[in-house]
Fold these 4 entries.
Entry 1:
Amino acid sequence: MSMGGSNIYKRRITLNADIKRRWVESLRSGNYRQGREALVVPNRILGDAFCCLGVLCDIAAKDGVVVRQAKSYLDPEDHLDQSYKALPLAVLQWSGLPISGRAANEVIIGDDIFLTTLNDNYEYDFDQIADVIEEKL
């Protein structure tokens, strides 16, 4: 693994199998309205909108790993670990997703393709993203 090149980011991710299963089920459940550019965007009328990583944060919140604030997730043990766009470190550690030099919202699934890019730019729906997670993570 080369620290100077991008190979460090292309290693196989060791996502916790139970968390992966719950994440995929949640994405396919129809219980989450899909949003873009933020983990969660509150909306009292239409219901909150989540990006694919926001769904993972919501599962982590249900497990007590983080606490949901209005627009972000907060690690109750480390109040500096709060984010509205990137996964909090506590969620990365809990889930088994890699902690790397890249931003925590850039969960790579191969050849510089990120889950956030699929969600925000290519507008994959949650079913398509669940398929990618099952296949690549």
Note: The first helix runs from residue 17 to 28.
Entry 2:
Amino acid sequence: MKFENSKDLFSFKNLYWFYIVLMGLVFTFLVPPFQKLDEHTHYNRVLSISDGQLFCGTNKQFDINAGEYDLQNEMQFFEIVHDYEKKFPISLIHFKENNREDRVPLGMNACLQNFVGYLPNVLGIFVGRIFKLPLLSFYLARLSGFLFFIFCMYLSLNLLKGNIYYWIVVLFGLFIKVIFQVTTISYDVVQLSLTPLFFSLFIRLVTKSNNEKRDRFLLGILLIVNYVFVKPGYYLLILLYILTFKKYSKKEVVNVIIFLCATFLSFIVYYFTSRVGNFNGDDFQMEFLKTNPVFFVTVIYRTTMESLPRYINEMIGSFGYNDYDLSSIVRYLYLIFLVNTFINLAKKGKKERINFGIIKVGILISMLIGTYVVLHFAMYSVWTPVGKNVVDGVQGRYFLPLLPYIFLIVIELCRRLNKKTNIQKIIVLLIFVIVIVDISVKIYKRFYD
């Protein structure tokens, strides 16, 4: 199966884009307004940015147009969001002109994120305001974010044209949860849209780049913009820049130092232009962790054991406020497709393979594990009740930006294993072992535990 230009209407490339565009339109227009996680909060932030309020004032507040703010109540957001039996009345979809000029003040929670992550959504609000129709502005904000994702995906696939690792970008675009999130009014739009671009530039630099200086410069700029200003908490992924060097001569070391200095200065700018708050309203959690540092290790372990299946399910296909998801058969089809792709990629493209030593592989894996820990630490610090033995508030969608690098590690692991034995045999053996262990545990819990 090839992903290339073809006169065939039913070529894989045409089917791929048809699927992404159609799925994106479904999530943009079929899902009722605000019926996506935290969309109402991000909508308020987008409105304030559209009014030129890029930063919150010293009182940690901004204000937005009352007519646009009331759209949440008109769409019965609060009545529907946590009541599965409550359905959305189609009659609510009407484009009422907004002539109100009074303002509604909003507090700290809406001030937490930098304006950079909302720029694609802001464009849709600008266009909708021409017609003074808040509901039109809302849908256009969703649509403009999705179009930004399409643009980034197109660039990413073209950057890896002829490289076997473009299949990882293809897989990323096929994830339904990714498409769901990029059709949401949220800063996730920018992060998830830039993720395939980071990966494509990274792969070009560690395999073969026709313009190494340009690719490294773009990667550095985009990493800083995204992981400093758009979505703090993924700081360790900035180290991808360092992994792109094949050797570390004096010139490369200077390059790395300049990049790290630019990153540090960006953090300073972010610190003084963003208002970061504590949802718990106090510092008791941090004081607790200072006196019980080892306790957090057990918290991470317990949370992982209890929540890992939920994280995976939410990454693959849990939607809305995680109150509806894909059917089991569809999830199984996704799994089969992934396994088949991993096997095929493990056998192909020896010339384009990345050539990482054990140290770089270890750094890449450590970055992913470290990011997992940092995200849990952040949510434990600001969202979880003091002293609780699990982390609250972590969602599977938080790990979507890590998927391309997880895929890369899995594929390279399969390739190395395939040199020594047939990878299909290993997978069949693993499936047999998993089935036997799973049913044995179920029997034990049912009759003996």
Note: Residues 12-442 form one domain.
Entry 3:
Amino acid sequence: MELCLPFFGEYWVEMKLAVCKAGENTMASNTTGADLRRAFMRTGVERSLRSGLSALLAYRTRPLRQRTGAMSKQKLAVHFLLLCPTFMKAADLKSETLQAWDAYIRRAQVRMQERSRGQAPFLRVDESPELLERVRIGGIFVEPEGGESPRVVPSGLIHDWVGAVFVPNATLDEVTGVLNEYQRYVDFYRPMVAESGLLEQGPNRNLVRLLMTQKAYSVTAAVETDDEVHVVRLGGDRAYRLSTSIHVQEIADYGKASEHVLPQDHGPGYIWRTCTVIRLEQRDGGTYAEMEMIALSRGIPWALRWLVQPLAERLPRSLLAAMLRDTRDAVSGELTAASLKTEGLAPSADRR
């Protein structure tokens, strides 16, 4: 779906901002953090990496009592990601990375076709009665697709997460109506969505533009995408939406006089490609909304994956849960507003 960009754009921006914040907090009280930062800032790539690894080794070999106030594993990951020139310089999307992405998306589309044809449960939550009940009574389900995310591909990472929420008292048409209000995404998904609009509209195909920004301290990141959205109706109570990015560009120095758009497939590599499937089914007194969001980003060096993995697992889970919650709240808000409007008109009709 067209919401894939906020999710994964936010994911990578939050990772970088977490790095920034942890680095600032650490350097205020931690000599090791400050030394590591200075080493990264004043030396070349090879010497920066050597200095960072030396600081990490010194930290890990200290007696436990001497580690109080020292850098945690997450803070070390933050310093490496933000400050080491090797990892934070602009990157180009490579052909082998794109080939791996295309192959992965083809497999994801086959899975969706199998669900739509009844060869597999239409909803992921139907695969577990306990999970279905948890979602039906108000819980939000989020987990990596296939039990693993991100997946390593040549010079990149593929992030694939699935989640579900139940919108009580809402019909399929009412949920679809909110998802089609592209111009109002800035209200529904604030502050992730800075700008949103509909570029083209057809019976079953829409072209949507989104601008996502995230800011903390002096760091602002922004990504703009054009998404092609196909809507497929499966009878009166089921539908799915397939959204694929056809144009993704990162914006440097967003909000400043020096703001400029980076060439496509070149830049920090927060997000290179996106694809989202939303499955909707009306039953049980409401509508289930299930989102599978897939994105391609730059890779992380093998030696640092043990540092970054906690962020790679925690951030997507919390961000997708927030998006599902926002979708439910947006639909519920529209239903409440419509109900109040109807109640407000009723006395006037009686008086007439």
Note: The radius of gyration is 23 Å.
Entry 4:
Amino acid sequence: MFLVQFALGQMTILSSSIIIKEMTALSFGERGLVASPLSPAKASRNRRVLIVEDERELCLTLADRFEDEGYEVEFAHDEQSGIRKIGEGTYDLIILDIMLPLGSGLDLCVRMRRMGVLTPVLFLTARSHVAEKVAGFKAGGDDYLTKPFDTLELMARVEALLRRGSASETGRADGEYQFGPVTLDVLRKKVTLNGQEVTLTSREFQLLRYLAENSGKTISREELLEEVWGDLSGNITRTVDMHVAGLRQKLESNPRRPELILTEPGAGYRFQP
């Protein structure tokens, strides 16, 4: 059951495990008092979002918000139904709860990345420890938001992930970079090593693309966090190191002596094809 309170133009929705706060404008319509979100511009139509969450009341709340912003929303309520929907459909964004019946959101994310699905993943969970966030990124997640959360922040993060996904489709006219035995096909979101496809997480792909587009330039960890991860205040720069190490393991002939992604001590990383 929801308890809705109105105070000073703010709507607070209480459910069993989450509080969602959002600035609203109140107006009278045919159905009585209506709360209209004071949100940013509407999202482009036909953006598809899959939300894997077992709390049904939260799903209904998120469905209302996403549909109001112009998104198409589908739901799954456990790991098995989630991986089935991911295998059968195409989505622009996937939101995963970590604690799921019949498995976990972390395991689901790992499975979809192994399937070659590069769709951005936002973890939405009550777990807030740094170790849990790191586990989410290692599993292939792109962003992390803890409950209780503000829906304005949620939508801002969703829009940022979708913008970065769109940006990854731009770059060179032919959308392809060749550096030694490695080929990066931006348009098809595909990476090959000696002709064999390499499975990258969505974040690894975005990181490789950004490095490739800035070949020869030393890029600080702070810049990479801002440009590839977005504004994640408080996240440590070791996140960048972890993802660079992952790319080296997958692309370098000798990850201990990298020739492609070089470390510039005290400065950051330099992509040297």
Note: The chain is about 35% helix and 30% strand.
